[in-house]
Amino acid sequence: xxxxxxxxxxxxxxxxxxxxxxxxxxxxxxxxxxxxxxxxxxxxxxxxxxxxxxxxxxxxxxxxxxxxxxxxxxxxxxxxxxxxxxxxxxxxxxxxxxxxxxxxxxxxxxxxxxxxxxxxxxxxxxxxxxxxxxxxxxxxxxxxxxxxxxxxxxxxxxxxxxxxxxxxxxxxxxxxxxxxxxxxxxxxxxxxxxxxxxxxxxxxxxxxxxxxxxxxxxxxxxxxxxxxxxxxxxxxxxxxxxxxxxxxxxxxxxxxxxx
Length: 259
Fold this sequence. Notes:
By secondary structure, the chain is of the alpha+beta class. The chain has 2 domains: 28-116, no CATH class; 118-234, no CATH class. Helix content is 29%, strand content 16%. The chain has helices at 2-19, 30-33, 37-54, 118-133, 151-154, 186-195, 208-213; strands at 99-104, 111-116, 138-143, 146-149, 161-163, 170-176, 181-183, 224-226, 232-234. Strands 3, 4, 5, 6 and 7 form a 5-stranded antiparallel beta sheet that branches. The chain has a two-stranded antiparallel sheet with strand order 1-2. The protein has a two-stranded antiparallel ribbon with strand order 8-9. The longest helix is centred in the N-terminal third of the chain and has 18 residues, at 2-19. The radius of gyration is 22 Å and the shape is globular. It starts with a helix and ends in a 25-residue tail after the last strand.
């Protein structure tokens, strides 16, 4: 009888812990890496409420104009939490997630979007190795002043890639003539162009195709346009600079480069 009572108590305790989120209260790892629509919607409502109450101001951090346009307007959570929304999203960089919450199209229609900071982390790895080597080894030229990265020459065992926010693809990283590293989204752009027809103006940067179709922005990249065959190709020519340009990512003050 005593043994049965002990077993009953153990089972009851197990059920209680499960109901209360036992096991240390650990969250599902996917909660930190999934771009949940409801969390984005919650932040959008908070941003809209802040704008309405402040006469059109945006709850964003100020960044230099030369910053990657897709990370230029990070949301400053201190301005909207907890007044306009109870707490930060679990997948936000500030809570240990992989996304930086930013605003897109701030002039016409400020929209909450995400930036995957894993891209910045990869670029940071490359920049650190570049500093150690005091140089960058350029591989095959892919486009004007855009090159493949010679990973072995830099001391890596193999290529570094970034998980695509749009597909199951692992995206390559390229290096510009300016010595900076960039994520290559040409695979995802080509796939999106196959699914939908777009009227692209000559020389127009087509990254907006991804930016407007998805919640995650194509950050840490170079502009793209279409070539004569209708395929995405780099449209920028990142020329060498006289000053050290090793940091296309900012220091970890935020996920910007950091992200």
